Amino acid sequence: MIRANQIAYEYIRSRIIDGTFRPAQRLVESQLAQDIGVSRNTVKKVLLQIEQEHLITLEDHKGARVLSPTIEEIQEYYEIRKSLEVLVVRSAVKHITDKDLGRMRSIFSEMLRLKEQQDYDKYSQCNRQFHDIIYEVSGKRIAVDMIKGIKTQLIRFQFRTMLAPGRSDNSVLEHKALLEALTDRDENAASLAIARHIDNVAGTIVKYKALFY
What is the pTM of this model? Predict the structure, then answer.
């Protein structure tokens, strides 16, 4: 039973995040159960779990629907995230080690390779690992938990930003600037780099919103 729940959870959640299930799309329990190969009761339980992550809404007599935040709500999420990221990165500057930076350089090199191959799925995975090191060394557990909660809401949008014209090139430059600032232990430069990165992602979603809706 636990295995069936996990399979159903990963199936539904991953398709919300990668955009297969579009914002405002209705999710039919019977169809999901058939597609996944689990019981309808299992799907019902998993949808309740995913609702807690604010990725769907469950409506009486209507079933589940993928949440569709407005552009204004998305911008607000990014404004909040930017403030938290600046707090975290300033702390990371004070605690990051040469070993940590070495790990980040290796990840960044892989990001460059994946970007050239246009493998944006694996690029996004490396991107997450790159930022996770900053989160780990910062020591700001509460702020990091809040960031991760916001990123859960936004990941399905951020994932698709790489399809926007010029975004992959800009992403590489932004991560390079952040890595250089951390290497120099420059709090102000690191703060500016992460703020620009968050602003540019948000700006891409606003500019190319047709990619996301």
Answer: 0.82
